[in-house]
């Protein structure tokens, strides 16, 4: 593995033999960190938003799932 920092980015080079599933998890985590880096939301606000999203999803999908 090689990690290189340039003026604008960090470049990580991995051998092609790296497990793609594990690598995808790392990429997903890094994407999350990048997306939330400037967030001022509290954990309580995030939890409430997640609750509302789940509630809306259930309303939209309940009939399809309970056939």
Overall description:
By secondary structure, the protein is mainly α. It has helices at residues 20-36, 43-65; strands at 2-5, 10-13. Strands 1-2 form a two-stranded antiparallel sheet.
Provide tags for this entry.
two-stranded antiparallel ribbon; 2 helices; 67 residues; flat; 60% helix; mainly alpha; single chain; 2 strands
Question: How is this fold's topology laid out?
Answer:
Layout: E1 2-5, E2 10-13, H1 20-36, H2 43-65
Antiparallel strand pairs: 1-2
Gross morphology: flat
Number of domains: 1
Rg, rounded, reads 19 Å
Strand order of the largest sheet: 1-2
Poorly predicted regions are none
Brief overview, please?
The chain is built from two helices and two strands, in the order ββαα. By secondary structure, it is mostly helical. The protein starts with a strand and ends with a helix.
């Amino acid at each position: 593995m090689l990690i290189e920092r340039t003026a604008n980015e960090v470049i990580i080079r991995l051998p092609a033999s790296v497990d793609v599933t594990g690598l995808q998890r790392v990429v997903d985590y890094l994407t999350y960190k990048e997306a939330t880096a400037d967030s001022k939301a509290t954990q309580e606000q995030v939890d409430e938003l997640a609750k509302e999203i789940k509630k809306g999803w259930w309303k939209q999908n309940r009939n399809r799932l309970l056939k």
